[in-house]
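Hey, I was hoping to borrow your eyes for a little while. No rush at all, and the record is pasted right below.
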Amino acid sequence: MNNELVPQPSWWKRNWKWVVPLGGCLTVIVFAIVLFTSIYFGVTKIMEDSKPYVHAFELINNDEQLIELLGSPIAKDGAVQGNIDWINGNKSAQMSIPISGPKGSGTLFINATGKGETWNYHEIRVEINEQEINLLEKP
């Protein structure tokens, strides 16, 4: 017997039972990825715009010993690790930043505290292999 005259249900009516849960799960996954990515890049942007970060990069790009070892320009070469805190007008920053230049790479360490617009730097140093260069001890 031929059922050509019997109407077939639409694609949606045949498949909604698996499309709705799968679509919902994919929506949640995409939302989570967008959320975590925006948080990561937002925090990274805050750290890169901070006064200690900018000051440290000015120091390392003007230091003759570092330019000789790494080349010029010296730039960030990976994700910034650390934190910046503002609590009741007191602020602190601890960061570890991979850096590189045309000749090599190293790690920049920053430790600073401050109040208001003023920052006090306790540590700005670069480690290249096993060599340490303390930029706060230089004139």
